[in-house]
């Protein structure tokens, strides 16, 4: 490194997660006044200046496909020392590592100063890589070829945590390194300077009148108390939104995050808004949103509404105050999404739609401000995907497919393609696949969903310790399993279910409070039971399904407002019906239907949620079959009326394949055999072959149940 081109006394490098520490250190160094008796003397690095100004702080956010740009390289070449904020986030940052390497290659290996804010040095070597705070380029010396060798380096570091150096001593250690003087010497001179200043201040203060002095003391005490309160609040917010969440969320530790959230709620409720700056209000909104998001993940969507509504109100207030600030618009969009998702999970679809449309509007405002920003483009993609998913939940499949196709078109146009675009593509393909299935395109659906499952497998394999990636893979496999069910082939059904359970097992063992994991597991257990039934292994299918029902009942009792458990429980009881009928147990079949309809909210005065209406119609079909078999005309009429009411909710002309299937089965059971079989034959030929349909036809085409119609049944349909 040439001594003649130094522009900066130091270059501060840090992970964006440690930005608050980078900002603090930058300000602390540039505002520090070197003790008069040291300034002008000669230190290890040359003449000691009066002030360490300027310091370069890296504020850039590099893209996944790029490298250190020319401006950063120039800044590194112009810096006397390299200052690293050390934490597990920094240790995992590719860009921090690249900056260290570049500075070392410029000959600056001996001028690297480290400030530890979290984690432990060389924890990787002691079997705790998650606590490592030194990046690889810091831990090893540079070889003669300019590459890292296997020779360990021994970097010296200041540690600002209270159990170590403390903030003030750590700051002085970094400044001593920049000045090229000993820490003890700087500390002594700094103390002398402080003492001289205190003597001067004391002399001035002694001349002030007693009343003025009393007022001044009172003001100082109040100011310090307010400062301590503000600092505590900032520390809490930074802790929640920074290191703690970044470390625990990938591990699935929602219970710890939730405990912190409860304490934060108590703190915020006691804090007056007038004492908060805009920056603090943004942080408060983030904390409230985190609390809501965690409660949703724990299956407490109803309890999430209050903190999420508060977060959204704060974001809207700030966004209205600064209408052209993209970061504030972005935060508003995030809160709109979270509030919408909580409403969705409690079946308030109109409210969810309002919030999701608010999310889309915020995203479009961001693109209008900067149309070339990939981050803003992705926000539009996400908002369209959410609107499509909501439409799908309400059986508006053509509208849903339109949203997904529009989203995919925007997604493929984004450059560069990153991990985020890949994750969005996985989500988009999953929803497209399910929607294609509902629109009678089974082969296309399977192709799309197998592609997205493969992409998810690769993503999870690249991050084997990331619980979030494993959860995404589980959802991808769940979507694929749904279509494999409708295609009716038990071999791929069983393979997908087994893979899904293998993915979920370690997640469930690691975090008992996260209800998403066991709920997903019950879906895969249901698929396993269904695959066994499709192979006519009835006893094993019944045993698997019965065990799964017990788990579903427990989950449903834990959170009755979450419709996912009730829908899966209804599916499980409908499978129990088919198993009982195959084993000639009509009483057991009748009990299963009744329990399923009750669990799904399909009978009595309750109104089933929109995304459970189709399942309720299938349950009423089972009732209709039992009534037809028993010759119970009154019960049959009640079932027909219930089915008609449910189908009316979905639209008489709705082309969804499941609704065509239901209408054709009603015709078949009503004795309109030819008309019903004609439609069912077309449906089966399209590749849609769910177990419940094939079993119905086998039962009624065998001759055991009137009216048999052998010339249209059995081989003519089932063996195609």
Topology:
Blueprint: E1 10-13, H1 19-30, E2 42-43, E3 46-47, E4 55-57, H2 70-77, E5 82-86, H3 88-91, H4 94-108, E6 112-116, H5 136-139, E7 140-142, E8 148-152, E9 157-159, H6 166-179, H7 183-206, H8 210-248, H9 254-269, H10 278-297, H11 301-321, H12 326-345, H13 349-369, H14 374-393, H15 397-413, H16 419-438, H17 442-462, H18 467-487, H19 490-510, H20 516-534, H21 538-558, H22 563-582, H23 586-599, H24 613-630, H25 633-650, H26 657-669, H27 673-685, H28 691-701
Parallel strand pairs: 1-4, 1-5, 5-6, 6-9
Antiparallel strand pairs: 2-3, 7-8
Helix pairs in contact: 2-4, 8-9, 8-10, 9-10, 10-11, 10-12, 11-12, 12-13, 13-14, 14-15, 14-16, 15-16, 16-17, 16-18, 17-18, 18-19, 18-20, 19-20, 20-21, 20-22, 21-22, 22-23, 22-24, 22-28, 23-24, 24-25, 24-26, 26-27
